[in-house]
Specification:
By secondary structure, the chain is α/β, with parallel strands linked by helices. It folds into two domains: 4-112 and 182-306, P-loop containing nucleotide triphosphate hydrolases (Rossmann fold), CATH 3.40.50; 120-178, Histone, subunit A, CATH 1.10.20.140. The protein has helices spanning 15-25, 51-56, 73-89, 101-108, 120-133, 135-145, 147-151, 158-171, 175-178, 197-213, 216-225, 240-247, 253-274, 291-306; strands spanning 4-8, 28-32, 59-60, 93-97, 111-112, 180-181, 188-194, 282-286. It has a six-stranded parallel beta sheet, sandwiched between helices. It has a two-stranded antiparallel ribbon with strand order 5-6. Helix 6 (135-145) packs across helix 8 (158-171). It starts with a strand and ends with a helix.
């Protein structure tokens, strides 16, 4: 019986380690659902699984494009679904792991994504408008045009706001009218990891400090030396944006580290808007003593039922 296990939750909570545990126990392979780990050369700042972790379980959807290549949700969905199907055809268990809510739900809910090609000129125009007038003004414009679409995104998510306005600009149709959901044709177990907020912040802070000690400054220098400038969407990622400002002399290192920690705290809070503790589709587990064993037992029960 084909099926899928997904591991979701906020950043730094332990999803990658748990995904590997599930994969090792149940003949699984990891499918990445982190929107930044798809980029080559961006390893430290994205907390990408390293050589040792990839040796424990086969990983997919990592290092698939360079930081200057355009990449859309439709690209991800198509590639990830094909990857999941390949894993299932080999008789293995696909384990979707990641905290990028849009990526995760586009797969699990089977979104129909509008096939509208990007318009670089229009996007640049809206980016300038956001810089001069603020992202809030663009969001209010989207609310006026398509309230249903606006309600489904965070008001500060500039890339999604621009994409929705771009679809309307190119087609004249409401973005919300072009989307639908068809679900997946096989059973899915969604496991959520969570922990108390203060503990999560502590985990995030330790991870950021580890990134600095592990060479994040040099990684960003290398990216800039390769010609990947700070205007690229990839370089707007957490850690990279702040570190670029540091290397440009606009922030000291200590201030930069604190900014990365603060922004990552905020990002983690926003992830709970995608993965709600009240969502009955998600089986939530509090990290702590024995939680991995509990999850493995729940996964075993799910697979036995699916079979």
């Amino acid at each position: 019986m084909k099926c899928l296990v997904a591991v979701v939750g906020p950043t730094a909570v332990g999803k990658s380690r748990l995904g590997i545990s599930i994969a090792k126990q149940f003949n699984g392979e990891i499918v990445n659902a982190d929107s930044r780990q798809i980029y080559k050369y961006m390893d430290i700042g994205t907390a990408k699984p390293g050589t040792a972790e990839r040796g424990e379980a086969r990983h997919h959807m990592l290092d698939i494009i360079t930081p200057d290549q355009p990449y859309s949700l439709a690209h991800f969905q198509e590639s990830a679904l094909r990857c999941i199907s390949d894993i299932q055809d080999r008789g293995a268990l696909p384990v979707l792991v990641g905290g990028s809510g849009q990526y995760v739900w586009s797969l699990l809910e089977g979104w129909r994504i509008p096939a509208v090609e990007p318009d670089p000129v229009f996007r640049e125009e809206l980016e300038r408008k956001a810089e001069s007038d603020g992202v809030d003004n663009l969001y209010r414009e989207l609310e006026r045009i398509d309230p249903a679409c606006a309600a489904g995104m965070l008001p500060h998510n500039l890339r999604r706001i621009i994409r929705a306005l771009e679809i309307y600009h190119k087609t004249g149709l409401l973005p919300s009218s072009l989307r639908g959901k068809k679900g997946l044709p096989y059973p899915v177990l969604i496991i959520g990891l969570t922990t108390q907020r203060e503990r999560l912040y502590s985990l995030i802070d330790r991870r950021v400090e580890g990134m600095i000690a592990g060479g994040l400054v040099q990684e960003v220098k290398d990216l800039l030396n390769r010609g990947y400038n700070s205007d690229l969407p990839s370089m707007s990622s957490l850690g990279y944006r702040q570190m670029t400002n540091h290397l440009a002399g606009r922030m000291g290192l200590e201030e930069t580290v604190q900014a990365i920690k603060y922004e990552t705290h905020r990002f983690a809070r926003n992830q709970y808007a995608w993965f709600r503790l009240s969502d009955i589709r998600i089986i939530w587990f509090e990290t702590g003593d024995g939680f991995v064993e509990q999850i493995l037992e729940s996964t075993r029960g799910f697979l036995n039922t699916a079979a």
